[in-house]
Fold this sequence. Notes:
By secondary structure, this protein is of the alpha/beta class. The chain contains nine helices and ten strands. Pfam families: ABC_tran.
Amino acid sequence: MIEVKQLIKKFGDNTVLAGINFHVNQGEVVAIIGPSGSGKSTLLRCLNLLEKPQSGIITIGDVVLNAKHYSRQDEHHLRHQSAMVFQHYNLFKNKTALANITEALVVAQKWGKKEAHQEGLRLLEQVGLLAQANQYPITLSGGQQQRVAIARALAVKPKVLLFDEPTSALDPEKVHEVLQVIHKLANNNTTMVIVTHEMEFAKQVADRVIFMAEGHIVEEGSAIDVLERPKQPQTQRFLRQLSETIEFEI
């Protein structure tokens, strides 16, 4: 469903992605982990051109884009293959949960209002929020807002869902709400790429884990292999640092 070849992204003289190659199969859930500054979120944002790479080939579904030479139409086609779920939800504060979902259907995809309304209610039911359809984001918990954001992403029927740290802004007890929705999507054969710093979350939802450091893919494999039996020293150090207890002297 996704194939990336020799993807390079620089910010000035700083190379953030140094010739990345990876693939994601249809229906697969892939988690990308790594230290801050490793290029995880930049890689995700390059997949829908929120960040413009300098070079490389990006394929999603049957759309192929050469990052060196592409038209506005090519960009449009690639962006329509995926939908992004952001760390901080990015909901319209002045619109209800239902209106947040129907907005893209009515404005961008030219659905009729009645049809969009019915689809919005169906998606809210899918993420367990039908009763909150007419509530505004300020009245919803973080977990509920993120589930509205997922429903909004699903509304455009993407071939791929991209999640950028979907649980990092949530209270720990709310993480399971989002986890359950992602599990349900995985069971429905939804292709997903999830950037996360939460290893337990990655272990529970991902078929495969990619560990990145300094703009390179250092290691990849099943979630259990990478997170519990890492082969590369960089991966081992990263996971060890996460598990170490920090001691304070006062």
